[in-house]
User: Fold V-type proton ATPase subunit F from Geodia barretti.
Amino acid sequence: MADFKGGKLLAVIGDEDTCTGFLLGGVGEMDAKRQPNFLVVRKETAVSDIEESFKAFLTRTDIAIILINQNIAEMIRHLVDAHDKPTPAILEIPSKDHPYDPSKDGILRRARGMFNAEDFR
Assistant:
């Protein structure tokens, strides 16, 4: 059996379907303070709650990647775009009701600025 002591986690900020899928896949965890590594965002969830959860995930040393539905990332775009550290990495993902739009993805926009067409010839 593998030893996962000191391993890193995924965090998820998403709608109910997204979070349920990842939780069924086994990503759900609680830290020592009994704080989960996911936030289910519903219609009544305040933007301030999303911001608070996002900021908390950024400071947790046990989280390596934050998966966030792109439509939810749009609600806190100022925080997502301000994050400039390599970990945790922030990955914007589609949801069932909101398809992925690459033009809104902050990481993809930054990566596009790093390369030009000549780099791929």
Observations:
- The mean pLDDT is 85.
